[in-house]
């Protein structure tokens, strides 16, 4: 066989779990033939009996190995020269062996010589780039990433794509192998430059693949579990502050205060502590959603025009002092996005959330995870269609009132909507401009993230007819780019419901994003 026979090939390793129900020749031959019938170009087979059985059933290229557990060496894969010769004689086209720099019964050079004497190809199962360098210097035909992560340190979760890319700088004959468990990872290994890609456990170790799926399903079920204890959830916005007793996505009780914009956060927290005193015995944690950014538990405004607060205000510490309970803090629109994803208009879907009120807040939930940090602060985009400055300053309730005053009407945003309902041209024109800018924003969001839905909330977003105007202003063509816009289902409670649920998902006393859904989920090793 020529090396080229493995070019751009999927190799399926058929190595059943030792002692398991699949550990017999019928199963191994069955796996091998099934793999070949569906496009695998080669096989990796362990042990002489299985190699003979598979060889009798197919002429496809086979990488042969023998695994041994030795008392005097950590080398497991084809440790002896006799093993290598026996594999070549039993019909392996390529004989693979451990090529690590560890105590070993036979040198890599001896193994290569023995296999070459039988007219077969050789493959070095390497743990590092240095292993590959030495094996290539000794005349190996293929180097594989097989043993990366298996020579002492804790077993990683992901395949070593970096090592594939590094090896490709030494030789084109690199076989990607080890922990390739998803189709995405297999593509990535090929993209990284591998000559061939080996997949084993994901296809032929039913026990392992089943346990990964079982764990994933359990995570899904756990995500649906109702929160067991009510949370005191607070949402501080530019015009009002909501404090609510939230349990399992439902607001059990609430108080609303208007935001005394000049009073500052210390006062707001004092007021909140007083107003929510009746719930104190019922809750074990406090969660808070705020406009602006939370970084390391410190709160800063991103657009002081929306709400002015001291830079890096120690929000979590102050709340902990005021309530003597663990505290979780998040951006309000990101929390609301999570609320809509869990309990509202975008349940279980990838969504972008926009709240259009005093400013514009935004949040994203993609692949079941909330994006934190500054992700989704769409109101701060500089929009060429709107002119200089952040988009929210040319769309929001503040802008609508300001435009009304320029047109000679000293009224607030709700009054502009009321005037529009009665047919006032000036009012309709202001609202249309605002809605047109939001329509363009929605189209841009669709192009960037392709969410299943864009959920819109906020006092302006949910005001009479506003959403219809936004939808009307989205270009009809091309249809594929048209965002699916829906109204928030949780309304003004989206923030408190979302942040209460997020708080429940954070763990321990360090209320970080660590415990967020998905953050702790990785496939377990074999
Ligand atoms: C480290 C070691 O002993 N690897 C062995 C080598 O033959 C096999 O147990 C693996 O199944 C094979 O490398 C394929 O990898 P995965 O099953 O992760 O796709």
Automatic annotation (TrEMBL):
<dbReference type="InterPro" id="IPR043129">
    <property type="entry name" value="ATPase_NBD"/>
</dbReference>
<protein>
    <recommendedName>
        <fullName>Putative N-acetylmannosamine-6-phosphate 2-epimerase</fullName>
        <ecNumber>5.1.3.9</ecNumber>
    </recommendedName>
</protein>
<comment type="similarity">
    <text>Belongs to the NanE family.</text>
</comment>
<keyword id="KW-0413">Isomerase</keyword>
<dbReference type="InterPro" id="IPR011060">
    <property type="entry name" value="RibuloseP-bd_barrel"/>
</dbReference>
<keyword id="KW-0614">Plasmid</keyword>
<keyword id="KW-0119">Carbohydrate metabolism</keyword>
<dbReference type="InterPro" id="IPR000600">
    <property type="entry name" value="ROK"/>
</dbReference>
<dbReference type="GO" id="GO:0047465">
    <property type="term" value="F:N-acylglucosamine-6-phosphate 2-epimerase activity"/>
</dbReference>
<dbReference type="InterPro" id="IPR007260">
    <property type="entry name" value="NanE"/>
</dbReference>
<comment type="pathway">
    <text>Amino-sugar metabolism; N-acetylneuraminate degradation; D-fructose 6-phosphate from N-acetylneuraminate: step 3/5.</text>
</comment>
<dbReference type="Pfam" id="PF00480">
    <property type="entry name" value="ROK"/>
</dbReference>
<dbReference type="InterPro" id="IPR013785">
    <property type="entry name" value="Aldolase_TIM"/>
</dbReference>
<dbReference type="Pfam" id="PF04131">
    <property type="entry name" value="NanE"/>
</dbReference>
<comment type="function">
    <text>Converts N-acetylmannosamine-6-phosphate (ManNAc-6-P) to N-acetylglucosamine-6-phosphate (GlcNAc-6-P).</text>
</comment>
